Amino acid sequence: MIAACTVAGSLLAAAGLPALAAPTAVPAITIAASAKTDVGGDALVVYRGGRKYRVASISGDISGATGKNVVKLYAQPFPYDRAARLIGSASEATRYSFNVKPTIATRYHVVLDTSPRAVTSATATVYISANSRVATKRNCVSTPVCHPAYRVYVFLPRALIGRYMSKHWYVYVGLRLSATSNPPRGPKWLYLDKHAAVSGPRRISPDEYERTVRFSLRIGSKSATWLFLACARDSEARDGIGLPGRHDCGVHRVRANVSYLG
Q1: pLDDT of residue 25
Q2: Distance of alpha carbon 99 from alpha carbon 58, whole angstroms
């Protein structure tokens, strides 16, 4: 009898409580980095590249928020030892997008200012690559073996270029020959040339230096088409240049149309 009365009293007390409101959904915000050059999902901008190549986009979706809310963009450049700083903001409802032009590998995150509290996104990183141009120093004129030479001009922000100048270069050469007088199509593969010579770096301006690349081609009396590439291995974790990990620079051969070596 006593136990039954206790249960009945508990039921009556519960019935007298006010109804509880449903929990409010917490807004969410996503983030992604994208660029014209994408290597394995990593966004890469090119220093002093054309507009398409030097700019990246930081974008994402907003869910669970009502109306328009302020989205704040924060940047934290390599080596990521200082607090991220605010570099932009916008009032958005369901999606946001910012254009960025980093000069070193940079992590980005966004903060959604919404009631009752701000929501912070995950982090997205945009990486940076050196830019270059090639000029012919000496053409291939002698036979059966010729010795072309090229000047390669490299561009990087002045704060980074000193670190990059000391790196070892790997040279790849591909050659295709034809018995006809018409030059053949370019080679599909380029091979690591361990006999190629690369001069020491020569500083030209605060953000530019030059090295000369020389190699030999045995063409005999045939028509020839050749291509060459030079690369330095990435060390992004140490200097903030290039991409994380290894990207075929130094391997035995690479495709002639390879989009990135590092």
Answers
A1: 66
A2: 6
51 shares a domain with 70: yes
120 and 164 both lie in a single domain = no
- Of 215, 227, 216, nearest in space to 143 by CA: 216
The CATH number of residue 81's host domain is 2.60.40.10
Rg (CA), the chain: 29
Helix (H) or strand (E) holding 203: strand 202-205
Measured CA to CA, the distance from residue 186 to residue 136 in angstroms comes to 18
Q: Are residues 74 and 152 in the same domain?
A: no
Omega cis (within 30) before 116: yes
| Interval 143-189: pLDDT, tens | 799 999 999 999 999 989 998 998 999 999 999 999 888 889 999 99
The residues, any chain, with a CB within 8 Å of residue 255's CB and separated by 6 or more, are: 188, 189, 190
Are 37 and 50 within 8 A, CB to CB? no
Determine the pLDDT at residue 216. Answer: 96
Number of domains in the chain: 2
- Per-residue pLDDT tens digits for 199-238: 999 999 999 999 999 999 999 888 999 999 999 999 999 9
DSSP output for 10-36: HHHHHHTSPPPPPPPPPPEE--EEEES
End-of-domain residue from the set 129, 147, 163 = 129
Task: Enter the DSSP assignment of 79.
Answer: T
Backbone angles phi, psi at 152, to 5 degrees: -115, 120
Q: How far apart are the first and last CA of the chain?
A: 83
Q: Which of 72, 94, 129 is the last residue of a domain?
A: 129
Helix (H, G, I), strand (E, B) or coil at 18: coil
CA–CA separation, 244 and 58 (whole Å): 19
**Which percentage of the chain shows pLDDT scores above 90?**
74
